[in-house]
Amino acid sequence: MVRTAPPVSEGPMRIDSKLCVLALAAAGWMACGGPETFSIELATVDNCNNLVDLVPPGHRVKLTVSGPGMAPIVVEADGASGGLEIPDIPAGKDRVVAVEVREPNGDLYARGESAAFEVKEDGTEAVRVVLYRTNYFSRVVGPDGKCSAMRQARAGHAAAPLSDHRVLIAGGYTGLRDDGQTPDGILDSVEIFDARAGTFQLGPRLPEPRAFARAVGLGDGRVLVVGGVREEGGSLLPQKNAFLYDGKTWKTISASVARRGHTATLVPTTGHVVVVGGVDENDEIVSTVEIFDPETETFSELELGESGASLARAFHGAVEFRGSTVAVVGGIDGEGRVTGLVSQLQWDNLQKTYVLSRSFQLATPVMHPATMVLGSAAGPRLIVAGGARSYSAEPGKPGAGSPSDETPLVQHMDAMSGTGQGSSELHAGTAVMEACGVALDSSRGLVLGGWRRNVGPLGIGDLVRLAAGTVSISQAGESAGRMMALKHLTCTPLGQNGVLVTGGFDENHNVSNVALLYFVKAETGRAN
To answer: Fewest CB atoms within 10 A around its CB: which of 52, 184, 242, 387?
Structure first.
């Protein structure tokens, strides 16, 4: 049975009957399912982000219900139809409703997913789905329809995915000291974000406060937090210990070297985390590479001999490609000089260890770059965006200094050989360093946030596209939904080609608790 709901002024509608109703003029879908009844509330008005009519007439709506022990139920309707019929949904746990709204040409216009729910024999409570516009930096919408944000304002924090819709956020700092530069208020607090529910829940605290640590999701619900700084005797000192989250508690794991300004990269083929470079407690550049084994939950030092000296880096980039190789990109070397060296650590399955397989030079050496790899496994393309071209180190302390001379260049090349080097510029030619680099899929990625000396945080929000071997740059986000200016933010990939942006130091000199979601706009005929 199909009925059209009468229009209402705002808010999702809800009915308690076996009717399947799509209320387009209002702000909600109503749907029945299961042996008894429940309603699906689809919020098509986003008061948090000032968006209305997220299901415009002429657009197609696709609703998919899936879960264990059931075949997915898929129904579609035209946005102007006013309603559609949804078959009964079998009783069971962990059901999820996913909704896509597509433009007349097939491009993805909006999307959303419900939190997991149970369909019971005697019915269930309403299921809510919030729609997010694509190509729009939206503030997270909470269960009450209002904007949701982190419970604690933080910058210089770490974040990593727990699943395709949950993210762990840990540590960071809350402000600056009187000098206006040194981070203060180092945190041990942890939050867990659920994209489907739009909530931030407190998690178990870190064993110690940390800022500028690196967090890596291990793909099995665990997260490793490596390095970073804490306050000791008035100074911010790099730390050795790592912390492993198992979904409930934290475990402290001993590492060999204290470090900040390092990288930690997951290698999918082995499950290892490769930790490279950084600055130690004496402001020296770290050359020791450590490998975390998730099976034994231990670190080991990688023996590379004299060739390992090339991996004495700090403030570099690192990115995995082809499932078994980590490219270590730029940074400063052991003498405190900005380098363009790209070194590849590759898993050798015969030797059961990592080896330095190749190296090449960037055309423009940079530190603090945003990095990603686009393209296929057969033809991976390394993208190196922005960064600082100069660095002034203190005498005898190569790890203590100031970067400058930022660049707007987006360098790109064959990730394996370094051949075919080319360059573009970020949108509007904006020079930046310490931006986030996030690959969304094999042909698209984002460069987000960052800062420039004597300017402060920047609202960089650029979409990098690789098509037929050509790299192009465009501004991401529509005029009312552009990226915010943030420094020391985190950008975490989510499922469905999305990214979560959290926290950072904003243009008003405040540490922020902001949380933004961005989903790329799928091209016609392309799944998102």
So the answer is: 52
C-alpha closest to that of 63 among 26, 29, 12, 14: 29
Q: For the chain, how many structural domains are there in total?
A: 1
* 31: its two tokens: 């749907």
Q: Indicate the burial class of 126 (C-beta count within 10 angstroms; 0-12, 13-18, 19 or more).
A: middle
Tokens of 142: 């909470």
Residue 470 lies in a domain: no
CA–CA separation, 477 and 459 (whole Å):
11
Nearest CA to 431 among 414, 410, 445?
410
Q: Which domain holds residue 117?
A: 2-133
Task: Name, in order, each residue with C-beta under 8 angstroms of 310's C-beta and a sequence gap of 6 or more.
Answer: 341, 343, 356, 359
pLDDT in tens, 139-167: 999 998 899 999 999 999 999 999 989 99
Q: What single letter denotes the amino acid at residue 403?
A: P
Q: What count of other Cβ atoms lies within 10 Å of the Cβ of residue 407?
A: 23
Spatial CB neighbours of 8, under 8 Å, sequence gap ≥ 6: 23, 26, 27
Q: How far apart are CA 405 and CA 379, in angstroms?
A: 32
Residue-wise DSSP of 360-406: EE-SS--BS-EEEEES-SSS-EEEEE--EEEEEEETTEEEEEEEEEE
Please report whether residue 435 resides in a domain.
Answer: no
H helices present in 413-474, as ranges? none
380 is a domain residue: no
Confidence at residue 31, expressed as pLDDT on a 0 to 100 scale: 45
The bridge status of strand 166-170 relative to strand 190-194 is: antiparallel
The Cα–Cα gap between 81 and 66 comes to 24
Angle at CA of residue 480, ends 474 and 486, nearest 5°: 70
**Type of residue at 311:** L
* pTM (whole model) above 0.90: yes
- Rounded Cα–Cα distance for residues 522 and 528 (Å): 5
Q: What are phi and psi of 374, to 5 degrees?
A: -115, 170
* b (16+ CB within 10 A) / e for 254-272: ebebbbbbbbbbbbeebeb
Q: Express as a percent the part of the chain with pLDDT over 90.
A: 79
